[in-house]
Design brief:
The chain has 26 helices and 16 strands. The chain is α/β, with parallel strands linked by helices. The chain has four domains: 8-51, no CATH class; 74-234, Substrate Binding Domain Of Dnak, Chain:A, Domain 2 (Up-down Bundle), CATH 1.20.1270; 242-390, Rossmann fold (3-Layer(aba) Sandwich), CATH 3.40.50.2030; 404-575 and 612-631, Rossmann fold (3-Layer(aba) Sandwich). The strands form four sheets. It has a six-stranded parallel sheet. β1 and β2 (59-60) form a beta hairpin. The radius of gyration is 25 Å and the shape is globular.
Length: 670
């Protein structure tokens, strides 16, 4: 029997995406959604039972007790595959951090056209954390020394990474005891590749311990460096008003999509698009100006700092081109589909690659160099503007949603306590009292193997009902933004009573946008500050918090999960596990998955589990939060305990007649 064809509604929960998928079908154009549907998953490879790391293979271990040609067992092969995923993911995010460090050095020495140090306060605070003298020194002098320190973290061979000292003291001690403190970012990645070469490390648990060391080099190293430098150079995010979804594209303007992950290019394109020269050039071409929009994590970077709209998350990259209204899609690194070039040939869109590390056959390559940043950014925009005259029929979904992004850990600190008493005390107190049951960090990619956005938004909505404060990054944040959950007033009628009080009193959305996927280190910083504030234990593993990646897809997600687990967090991945093991489940995944869960929990207090059903994800999250509350001796969470105070309650009282108001406040009045 032929497999029943999926509808656009089954492919995506987003109405804008559904409209574009209908258009794609009418034009006979395939997308990632239809390609995923047409390509059945390899049961052997997806379960981690295939080894192709030498010329004697590939070895496919499909029978109980079978081994590779070299004798490698299923446990060893799966552990090696896991290590390589962590190494690749860590390399991607940390290499981003390296580029940012070199840019900081260039800016400090006046060698980067158009860039400057925008957040001097963040520069001084960051430098002081590493013991760099800041008094009587110019910002450029401080930045130069800080850049050298950061650059050294990548090639360092001995000792330990400097950012490790920013973790809770108890956690640092644990890492030292376990022997997983990273020595240098590049060293740990290279050693991971060495250990997984034919004939090297063959002990699954020993291999997975090094996966922890690699991941820590990313989370408490390369990614943390990237986020700090982005804040220093482009400004630490604070709430701004923005918009999201394909409706942000403009019919009367030159539409330029910036897609990828590094803010170095996108920030300069934003600046160039606002220059009189480019505005005049666009108007001379018959357009009303240049309209920028982002896709993926580049979208989050310029959204939270500049308010530039986000056209969508990962699976929107093809759909944006399908509108026919995009003059150029400018890409840098990571999560860029090779299919874009072939798709663009059906329209007038130019796909422009810009990184020294990324070329796509058939794309236009305009290599970006920070030393000539403004000049190159203008040249890229002029190529897009010149293409405006070639536009054909367009179809822009009139689907758009407002949002408020930009909740850096610095701003959360400020919003809770104010300018003179910035503190995480109110957050800790809200958790301790039970107004907030716990915290969930929902992060990660889209995956066309599941309905786009559904897992993210279903889990988010269900946790909000249970008084769980949600923080989000990356594609997950954009998914919630499309539903209006990143607005202060949106969805509060569906939020638990205690959490609603907090949102109304502080003036925050029920979901806090904390940036791009590289900015998951902000979440580590928040958890560390909560520990330091007191009342919720003395280490991250004691906090009632859970991390979830409902639609994970990339190797970066595996690296992020691993450093979060090593930091003490319970992490849940949606979808199937990449280590399903043997059909009879006698060997294989049972051993590896058990170690990633129970084994790592014993060692680090955190664990990684794969859960397909979204309602089970919610159940396990709440179960873990309640377990941590009980261990801290906090009162049991009760749904009906709070909900009649805060600003909204005061407004309700103000509207009542005096006698009813007195009765509401003081009880019955005789």
């Amino acid at each position: 029997m032929a497999k029943e064809k999926k509808t656009p509604q089954q492919f995506s929960a987003d109405p804008a995406a559904q409209q574009m998928l209908i258009r794609a079908e009418s034009l006979g154009i395939g997308t990632a959604f239809t390609r995923a549907e047409a390509m059945p998953a390899c049961n052997i490879g997806s379960a981690g039972m295939c080894c192709k790391m030498c010329g004697m293979g590939p070895c496919r271990l499909t029978k109980d007790g079978s081994t590779g040609v070299c004798g490698a067992t299923i446990d060893t092969i799966q552990a090696r595959n896991f290590v390589r995923m962590v190494a690749a993911g860590s390399a991607a995010h940390s290499d981003h951090g390296r580029d940012m460090a070199f840019l900081l050095k260039a800016v400090a020495n006046g060698e980067a056209e158009g860039y400057s140090i925008r957040d001097v306060a963040k520069l001084r605070v960051t430098a002081a954390k590493y013991g760099i003298p800041i008094e009587k020194r110019s910002p450029e002098e401080i930045a130069d020394v800080l850049a050298d320190l950061f650059i050294a973290q990548f090639g360092q061979q001995r000792g330990e990474l400097a950012p490790i000292k920013r973790a809770p003291a108890k956690r640092q001690k644990l890492w030292h005891e376990r022997g997983v403190v990273p020595r240098g970012i590049d060293r740990e990645v290279v050693e991971g590749l060495h250990r997984t070469h034919i004939g090297d490390d063959q002990h699954p648990e020993h291999l997975l311990q090094h996966a922890v060391r690699i991941a820590l080099a990313d989370g408490w190293g390369g990614s943390m460096i990237a986020t700090d430098i982005a804040d220093i150079l482009f400004g630490t995010p604070a709430p701004v008003v923005g918009q999201t979804n394909l409706g942000v594209l403009k019919a009367d303007m030159v539409n330029v999509i910036v897609h990828g992950h590094e803010p170095v290019l996108s920030e300069m394109i934003v600046a160039a698009s606002q220059t009189p020269e480019i505005i005049a050039y666009a108007k001379a071409a018959g357009a009303n100006g240049v309209n920028l929009a982002g896709i993926c994590c580049t979208a989050n970077e310029i959204l939270m700092r500049q308010g530039v709209p986000a056209a969508g998350n990962f699976l929107h990259q093809e759909l944006a081109i399908l509108t026919g209204a995009v003059e150029a899609m400018v890409v840098d690194v990571q999560c860029i589909m090779q299919a874009l070039v072939g798709l663009a040939e059906n329209f007038h869109t130019k796909v422009i690659t810009t990184s020294t590390k990324v070329k796509i056959k058939g794309a236009t390559h305009m290599e970006f160099d920070e030393h000539h940043a403004m000049t190159i950014a203008k040249d890229i925009l002029k190529v897009a503007i010149d293409n405006f005259k070639n536009r054909g029929a367009i179809e822009i979904p009139q689907v758009i949603e407002d949002l408020v992004p930009g909740f850096s850990h610095e701003y959360i600190n400020y919003m809770l306590g104010g300018s003179y008493r910035a503190s995480f005390r109110p957050l800790n107190d809200a958790i301790m009292s039970g107004r907030i049951r716990g915290v969930a960090a929902i992060v990660g990619c889209n995956n066309p193997r599941s309905q786009q956005d559904y897992l993210h938004t279903h889990v988010t909505r269900e946790l909000l009902k249970q008084d769980v404060l949600v923080v989000e990054t990356g594609c997950s944040a954009i998914a919630s933004a499309k539903l209006g959950l990143l607005l202060g007033e949106a969805g509060l009628d569906q939020v638990g009573a205690g959490l609603r009080e907090i949102c109304e009193t502080v003036g925050i959305p029920p979901v806090l946008h904390m940036g791009a996927c590289v900015d998951n280190t902000r979440i580590l910083t928040v958890l560390t500050q909560m520990v330091e504030e007191g009342g919720l234990g003395d280490d991250i593993d004691q906090i009632p918090a859970v991390g979830l990646a409902p639609e994970w897809m990339s190797e970066k997600a595996v690296a992020i999960a691993t450093y979060c687990v090593a930091s003490g967090a319970y992490v849940i991945f949606g979808g199937s596990s990449p280590f399903e093991g043997m059909p009879d489940r006698v060997t294989g995944s049972d051993a590896i998955l058990h170690y990633l869960s129970a084994g790592w929990e014993q060692l680090y207090g955190g664990k990684l589990e794969f859960v397909e059903d979204p309602d089970e994800m919610v159940r396990l999250t709440l179960e873990h939060i309640d377990k941590k509350r009980a261990a801290l001796g906090l009162p049991e969470w009760k749904a009906d305990k709070f909900g009649r105070s805060g600003d909204k309650r005061m407004n309700e009282l103000e509207a009542l007649p005096l006698d009813m108001k007195m009765a509401a406040v003081y009880g019955s009045v005789n």
